[in-house]
Amino acid sequence: MIKNIKVMLLPNNKQQTKMFQTADAARYAYNWAVATQMEHFKQNSKYMSESDIRKLFTEHKQEKLWLYEVSNDASKQAIRDCCDAFWRFCIEKKKPNYKPYSKKQIVKASKNNSPLTRYNMHCHPKFKKKGKNIPKFYMDTEKIEFSDTHVKLGKIANGKRKNRAKANWIKLAERARIPTDIKYTNPRISYDGIHWWISVGIEEESNQFAEYGEGVGIDVGIKELAICSNKNRYENINKTKTVCKLKKKQRRLQRKVSRKYLINKEGESYKKTSNIIKSKKQLLKLNQRLTGIRHNHIHQITSEIIKQKPSFLVLEDLNVRGMMKNKHLAKALQEQCLYEFSRQIQYKCGCNGIKFIEADRYYPSSKTCCMCGNIKKDLKLSDRTYICNECGNVIDRDYQAALNLKRYGEAIA
Questions:
Q1: Which DSSP string do the residues of 206-217 spell out, in sequence order?
Q2: Residue 181 lies in a domain
């Protein structure tokens, strides 16, 4: 299986400027490919192949000489990503719930000379706007080289000195994190607003435990992040003292930025001053720190569950998008990072040979009595204790859901 490793970079000013130029070239190539596809579809009612677009882009580069100053792999992969996005868009149109535009809408777009005379606008690949798009680019595996402490990227640092730390190589924030004697897949360099990161995929064999124990059912929620059928409970990190202090600081900083925008308002537009940029960078650092705390907490929980060596893990398929429509629960659900929890559980099960089972979305895990099997249809979200009307069973509703999920997995496994 392929394991992805992400490490922070520590570039100097020249290297950082070069990486921004490469990311701009990738964004420009992607937007140019989107516009070319749309124009070709407007004239011929079909999309172009990747090879045809790359030939046109090679001719177009002669007008934009600054594209030759960066690596060709970034723009080449950006065009490939654009063509893949259009291919997925064509597959999306074949779905049963697809609703095309009416003839009036298409005629109106044609009269306005709009390139958007197409189907289903919300699925169509969009242009990447500068300032709102994440700066990132691809680097070919043959033009990337790792040591224990540094990485060399094509056309990023091309100094002729032998001292790799000063000229030719970009420093890594972690030592010996990425192996140096293997092949890499899909190297990507990205910028999160503060730091540059590099991520590569490496081939790794899955671990197999000698013995496996009983299966485990996991019920996730807001009050507690996870409740397992083996009576293990994992707290909600957002209710701890540290996170509450950071959230309070976040709210104050956000109000500070909003006040500065109102003070510097000119007519209907907002002027972005250097103080606003400084405050927004502080806010971004705080948001990243909160995200890091939450994801680290999820990593510790999922690793602890996997180390128990269960034969299978059962997790319910929650309709998070529908639950987010509830304005009273939306913020708490967003902070819990339930999708990230499910994603980590799935890939760690695959790495360790544990069977992962996703329960049906409409399986009544909380409403079903674990003793007699009676389904209590009038159970409310505010009822934290389950009281069965048939057998008189009294149990915590989340723990009962975990037990029912375990039985669901036993029936399938």
A1: PP--S--B--EE
A2: yes
Structure tokens at 179: 């192996």
User: Tokens 């516009």 sit at which residue?
Assistant: 35
Q: Is the pLDDT of residue 74 over 90?
A: yes
Residue the block writes with tokens 């792999």 = 73
In a domain, 112, yes or no: yes
Asked if 225 and 301 count as a contact pair (C-beta separation under 8 A), the reply is yes
Let me know whether 163 and 142 are in one domain.
yes
Residue in this structure with the two tokens 């192996």, named with its chain if needed: 179
259 located within any domain: no
What tens digit of pLDDT does each residue of 106-118 get? Answer: 445 444 444 433 3
d(CA 253, CA 19): 30
Number of domains in the chain: 2
pLDDT band at 92 (very low <50, low <70, confident <90, very high): low
| Residue percentage of the chain with pLDDT more than 70 | 89
Check whether residue 196 and residue 134 sit in a common domain: yes
Residue 352 CA: distances (Å) to CA of 1, 188, 348, 349: 11, 26, 6, 5
- Domain co-membership, 195 together with 218: no
SS3 of 35-95: the string is HHHHHHHHHHCCCCCHHHHHHHHHHHCCCCHHHHHCCHHHHHHHHHHHHHHHHHHHHHCCC
Does residue 158 have a pLDDT over 70?
no
Contact at 8 Å (CB) between 353 and 209?
yes
Pairing of strands 355-359, 312-316: parallel
- Using 50, 70 and 90 to split pLDDT, how confident is the model at 160? low
Write down the pLDDT at residue 113: 45
Domain membership of residue 10 as a residue range: 1-205
Please give the residue that has the higher pLDDT: either 116 or 207: 207
* CA distance linking residue 156 with residue 9, whole number of Å: 13
**Residues in a beta bridge with 395:** 386
86-93 CB contacts, 8 Å cutoff, 24+ apart: 86/37, 86/47, 86/125, 89/120, 89/123, 89/124, 89/125, 90/47, 92/120, 92/123, 93/119, 93/120, 93/123
pTM comes to 0.81
